[in-house]
Amino acid sequence: MAQKSLFLQMVRNKARAARLSPRTERAYVGWIRRFIRHHGLRHPNALGEREVAAFLNHLVVERKVSASMQTQALCALLFLYDRVLERRLARLQDLTWARSRARVPVVLTREEVEAVLRELKGTAWVVGMLLYGSGLRLLECLQLRVKDVDLARGEILVRDTKGGKPRVTVLPAAVREALGAHLEAVRRQHGADLAHGAGRVELPGALAVKYPGAAREWVWQWVFPAARGYVDRGGGERRRHHVHESVIQRAVRAAVARSGINKRATCHTSPVRDPPAGGWV
Question: For the whole prediction, is pTM greater than 0.70?
Fold first, then answer.
């Protein structure tokens, strides 16, 4: 058990060295753990192309996973052999591929978007306005730092994008005043945290080493901080993370239900057409 934990920690270290996102790291470690367990806890060095193909076929035939999940598992195992074990796999033989199913996307009309937004309150409403008015993904919105929001210019700089390419998007005029008031409340909360010996946030990359005091600076704070802080296991610092995406997801689901819309709408459900420059509302 200890050896297996050390091996998976090596996988995590390689993932961080490759600058994979935390979500991708967790997904890869999960698939590699399942792969090892599927083959009786044998070390991956003792396994090869045949065992990889057998595991991927098991996912499709017995576990009935989707094509995207099978592809993610394949990417995790390719990373394992290529980057961790430094052993490139040969062509996989007799591989059964899951079939991709074409699905009609769920879209919302402008009236339905307005109905959902009317049911959101507080922070969830501000986030919802940015999702629909600025075209942000949920995690992109929740990972915004104070320095990424320019209220005067009406712009938002999105750094942590899914594709890794930063972009500038519009800040809807309809939410600018509310976002400004929200940031003032966050500033007061940050001041109270500092007064109690907390007020730090996690910094990207090696910035915490290069700028030791930056984690306490206002500009690096989350735009949407979590209600509760936590103690970092590594250094024992009292920090505050951003709001967890499940909090907003639950709020949006409840708002959709209250609005009476008979669609399975989520935070990422698109409007029926592209929003205008100032946002939907």
Answer: yes
